[in-house]
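To whoever is on call:

I kicked off a structure prediction for a single chain this morning and the downstream step that reads the tokens threw a length-mismatch warning. I double-checked the sequence; it's 162 residues and nothing unusual in it as far as I can see. Pasting both halves so you can look.
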Amino acid sequence: MTASEAMPTVGLGFRWEDTPVGFRFRTIGRTVTDADITAFVGVTGMVEVLFTNLDYLEKESLFAGKRLAPGALVYCFAEGLLMQSAVQGVGLSFLGMDLKVEAPTFAGDTIHVECEVVESRATSKPGRGMVKTANRIVNQRGETVMIYSPARLVKGRDYQRG
């Protein structure tokens, strides 16, 4: 046995059998910065004045000068937090989701994701399972800013490609 075989790798996701209905966990936090918003808006082309014009935010928006983060950015950060903690190395396919924005997220807010497994079952192919979670994105004040329910095809313990 080599040293790498004897030493487990940490940070890998959960196999579908390890996520029974009712299983809950939370991710680490991530602060949304002005630079994050600027980069995301630039990369995606979301050049809406709500995200690019601080004068407009101060004078005409509902947010009185606070730097607003696009909902798509908040969702992407949440998925990134989940990839780092629960999905790494076990995801096979994203199958779809429902999503609802509950409150705005601003530069300087720190978000984390709280997940609860609502469905977990084997598929017709051995070594694969479908896992659906109810995810809440929560800010540093304990406010829910977004809820979404992704369904994913996930490896099982006896997964074999093919």
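Update from on-call: the warning came from a stale cache, not from the record. Cleared it. Sanity check on the structure: The chain has a mean pLDDT of 92.
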